[in-house]
Amino acid sequence: MIDAIPIPGIIQAILVLIMITGALIVTRKDLLSLLSMYRLQSLLLMFLALVLYAESGNYVLLQMAVLTLASKVLLIPYIIRRMQKEINISKDISFHYISPAYSLFITVALIFFSYYSLSKTLNELTDNKLFYLGAVFGISLALMGMMVTFSRKKIVTKTIGYLMMENGALIFSIFITELPFLIEVLIIIDLVILVLLAAILAVGMDSSIEEFQAKLERIKHPARNGGTH
Amino acid sequence: MIMFTSLFYLGIFLSLLGFVLPLLRLENNRKAHRTFSYSLSILSSVSFLAFSALVFLKKGEYLIPVYSNAGLIDFTFYVDQLSAFFIAVISVVSLSSAVYSFGYGEHLSHERRKDYMASLLNLFALSMVLVVASYNTLEFIFFWELLSMSSFLFVLFEYGKPGTRKAGLYYFIMTQLSTMFLLLGFFGIYANTGSFNIQPVTSLQNLTLIFLSLFIGFSIKAGVVPFHKWLPYAHPAAPSNISAMMSGVMLKVAIYGLMRFTLTVLPQERWWGVLILVAGTVSAILGVIYALKEHDIKRLLAYHSIENIGIILIGFGLYLIYSANDLNELAILALAAALFHTLNHALFKSLLFLTAGSVVSATGKHNIEEYGGLIKTMPYTAALFLIGAVSISGLPPFNGFVSELMLFQAFLGSYLIQDPLLKSLVVLCLSGFALTSALAAACFVKAFGITFLAVPRSESARDAKEVGKCMIAGAVIPAVLCIVLGVFSLQIFSLMGYRTDLPDMLVIGIIMSLFYAITYLVLKNTAANKVRAGETWGCGTPLSSRTEYTASGFSQPIVRFFKDIYQTREVNERRFYDKQNTLFKEGAGEIHLMKFFEEKLYDPVARSINYLSIKVSALENWSLDTYVLYAFLAVLATVAYVGWIA
To answer: What is the largest CA-CA distance in chain B?
Structure first.
């Protein structure tokens, strides 16, 4: 945990910007801008780690910044972008349960909800108001990511929602929990995402989740579905 | 001390050996292995019996360590007078059931089933002994579940027969409910004391909740109304030697639990006695009333178990009431009556189930309407059944009479209670109890008369043959004890150092025997001895078994009298040839008895749970998005909860 932050203004600004990218991910339909927002969010996250590193001198934070840049700013968006080009879809216009307009309201509500619900618990963990804000934003971002995961139909969008959840968890970890543990978790989650992406790539990225399941069924039971082998 | 505990260890070892041996399925001579397993069961029962008798007479308390593993698993047993008494009761009934099983077990249809019977019998008996000897609540639950599991397997033993699966399901659900309530109570005690040991607790938070949990948990297993419904299903479904043990002693294990926790663990409150007394009275009355309309012989006996558990609870409730009112002598009398009736019921009910099992085994029928005249073909079974019937009906000089008399004596001291309301309640319960005794006698006149007297009413009853020696010997043990405990009751109580106001049943027995002998001699010498052969007048129709007094006919006036309780519905349909309804064509009359508790309590609860399950199932729609939504809501709820409790 970081002990003292003399430049809270910068950190606050970065956190707010991250939340704005989160809100945009929740509402945008255009896949290209969704991906850009995610990339921007990850970049902001990297800056956050760098600023904190500059302050605390904790070497792990630098590692984390580099890892974030390599994986979330460059590698993952690159893979998704390439797939997007190949399958030639640009918009995710169908929604489950919540429309984008309502999503935005819910996002605001989620931040307030987290803020008030966790005020007592987090105040016991940290006296620093900034840490508290970071933790609340982290949880809110994770919840927003979850909301994207269940409210969107295209797998690309769901994946971005999942990645956003992980970003939220990362922010929460930076401000509240211990760092070495965090690095381990980070790597594991990233691996899971890679496996998930690999699975999607193997079956086809243009599909919605129902089609994905149907394809899986065809692979599992070829005879029942008219397969030849 | 060393000898005491070695007897206990020996009993456990022999039972475990008897459990394992038939399961090994050694190919050479499996029957010999089963016989050996039953013999081990007998030996372990004798061992436990000797152990408990010594503990009981020495009035000591013994801690017996068996296995302990770093405090996590601790099989240490504790035996005092109360547990020794119950171990003795369990052992006697297990002993007679094992002897009976030598013959009965070999009548079963498959070799494998015979093996399981021999094996599980040992496990069943052992688990009961170990529940009673448990020193901590974790042990108690462990052996309680072992008991439930082994008895559940017995209920499903003849799973191919119609109704058995329903019985199994009922039993399983009810027994698990019972465990759930017990766990709630035990954890309640643990939350207060931080210990799982079964030992006195001076002050408790949530005492009422803990007591009610334990009371409901034990009542379900004991078959107290309204938690009794599993009993009339499960007991007839199980093999008869097991029904004898289930009814005779398994229900008593629950009574033991209630007594143990109420008497020695929890600090008593005044209203507990009232609750137990009322529950006991209701069970006793409804048990016997339902038994009266029952024609399945084993189900009839099962209902009588509900009645007798009620009687035991009446005694225990009176004990608590008198204790709370500082009427200590009366309290001890009521407790002695309850405990003595526990023993007596174990004996005569196992005797009745064993002999009923012989009848079912000989005829292949459960319905007493299809018996008749069995006294001629099965004289020993008839005589043994009669002893059981007379004992349960509470007729002198048998044991049932003595315990019921003690209970009446305890009731009659109720005028010493100060509180007028409580006094009125006790008197009301007394009248209920008196009614119960009378109805039980009526019921067994029916059961014995319709089963054994007159002429056979079915082919199978006509062809029935007396059962083998082992099955008779198994029933002789409780029969002899029924007589001995009745006739020598005063002497036995004096030997144990308990002073009672009981009449000397030995003297009464001798007087009654003399009276019967003199009456017989006088009648033999004075009555007309000439045998006159002649045909009974039968209104011009030939007399057959169809014109006999039937069980339905016998109980019809009582069923009519209690029709509000049975909720009887009579249907009479008549059709005529002409419009003026003068020329009768055909008709049908039916009497339907409503299964009150099943239709009004169990079914609605089951339907509600079913409805809820359907609603919950509807949440599952095979969509990933929906499941993530649920996870999202769960996280929100968790965050809200964390905020709320902080």
So the answer is: 98
Distance of CA A195 to the CA centre of its chain: 16
Cβ–Cβ under 8 Å, residues B413 and B327? yes
Residues A131 and A176: beta-carbon distance below 8 Å: yes
Q: List the single residue in A113, A149, A153 with the smallest CB-CB distance to B628.
A: A149
Domain containing A135 equals 8-220
Domain boundaries, chain B: 271-522, 549-592, 598-645
Percent of chain B having pLDDT more than 90? 54
Collect all residues from A whose CB is shorter than 8 A from any CB in B.
96-97, 113-114, 116-121, 124, 139, 143, 146-147, 149-151, 153, 209-210, 213
Element (H or E) spanning B64, and its range? strand B62-69
Q: CA-CA distances (angstroms) from residue B10 to B5, B6, B7?
A: 8, 6, 5
DSSP β-ladder status, B73-79 and B569-576: unpaired
How many distinct structural domains can be found in chain A? 1
Render pLDDT for B367-407 as a digit per residue (tens, 0 to 9): 988 888 899 999 999 999 999 999 999 998 899 999 999 99
B-chain CB neighbours of A119 within 8 Å are: 643
Does some domain include residue A59?
Answer: yes
Q: How far apart are CA B442 and CA B437, in angstroms?
A: 9
What phi-psi label fits residue B314: left (phi over 0), alpha (psi between -120 and 50 degrees) or beta?
alpha
pLDDT tens, residue by residue, B433-476: 999 989 999 999 999 999 998 888 888 888 889 998 999 999 99
Give the count of beta carbons closer than 10 Å to the beta carbon of residue A18.
Answer: 26
Q: List the single best residue of B623, B630, B632 to mutate versus A (max A Cβ within 10 A).
A: B632
Task: For residues B489-501, give the mean pLDDT.
Answer: 85
Divide the 229 residues of chain A into consecutive groups of 10 and give the mean pLDDT of each group. 62 91 89 90 92 82 82 80 70 77 87 84 73 87 90 81 85 71 57 56 57 66 50
Give the distance from residue B624's alpha carbon to the nearest chain A alpha carbon, in angstroms.
Answer: 8
How many CB atoms are located within 10 Å of the residue B519 CB? 10
| Record: contact B628-A117, CB cut-off 8 A | no
Region for residue B455 given its phi and psi (left: phi exceeds 0; alpha: psi -120 to 50; beta: otherwise) = beta
CA distance A13 to B81: 77
The minimum CA-CA distance between B641 and chain A, rounded to whole Å, is: 8
Q: Which residues does chain B have within 8 Å of residue A114's beta carbon, measured at their own beta carbons?
A: 639
Q: Which uninterrupted H or E stretch holds B569?
A: strand B569-576
pLDDT score recorded for residue B571:
81
Strand B73-79 versus strand B62-69 pairing type: antiparallel
Q: Is the distance from CB of B352 to CB of B475 less than 8 angstroms?
A: no
How many Å lie between the alpha carbon of B193 and the closest alpha carbon of chain A? 30
Lowest mean pLDDT among A133-142, B491-500, B593-602: B593-602
Tokens read off for B82: 């109360």
Residue A2 counted as domain residue: no
- Interchain proximity A117–B625, CB inside 8 Å: no
Instruction: DSSP for B68-101, please give it.
Output: EETTTEEEEEEE-HHHHHHHHHHHHHHHHHHHHH
- pLDDT at position A227 is 42
One DSSP character per residue, A156-180 reads HHHHHHHHHHHHHHHHHHHHHS-HH
Query: Rounded distance, CA A120 to CA A117, Å?
Result: 7
Give domain status of residue A228, yes or no. Answer: no
Please state whether the predicted TM-score (pTM) of the whole model is above 0.80. Answer: no
ipTM value of the model? 0.80
Q: What pLDDT sits at residue B382? A: 95
Q: Could you give the CA distance from residue B309 to residue B322 in angstroms, rounded to a whole number?
A: 20
Q: Is residue A177 part of a domain?
A: yes
Q: What is the DSSP letter of B429?
A: H
